[in-house]
Hints:
Layout: E1 2-3, E2 16-19, H1 25-38, E3 42-46, E4 58-62, H2 69-77, E5 83-85, H3 89-97, E6 101-103, E7 109-110, H4 115-130, H5 143-162
Parallel strand pairs: 2-3, 2-5, 3-4, 5-6
Antiparallel strand pairs: 1-4, 6-7
Amino acid sequence: MNDEAGETGETDETRIWVDADACPAVIKDILFRAAERLRIPLTLVANKALRTPPSAYIRSILVPKGFDVADAEIIERVRAGDLVITADIPLAAAAIAKRAHALDPRGELYTHDNIRERLGMRNFMDDLRGSGVETGGPPVFGAGDRQAFANQLDRFFADRRRH
């Protein structure tokens, strides 16, 4: 494991963790701007080197290649109240179990109320694929997804400021 940017230090504030290997570049750009604007620590975790803008708030962690290595790194470091950005349902479920929050890059906020259903559907689709059924992939990531993510991220932090 290798920190590619300087430590921002521990805070009592929400931190943002990004499952960065599959996160769309436009979502990373939104997150970079939000980290700077809100002065919130943002950490991208990936198994390949990432470009990040110079910032006291933004860093990346390079993990070894391997199945769920980045996910395990995020879960080891995440704490209650943090925000995890991921499309990986099991990672979102593990974050929620640690009392963190999880947001899909398409703008869906995972909660205690919806994560079991999402996990059940994911496992069902995985079983179908395992038995040879062609299920197709997710729809193409578009401008509507980008906007939904930006709106949900803004709502998330607006709610935090109110409490």
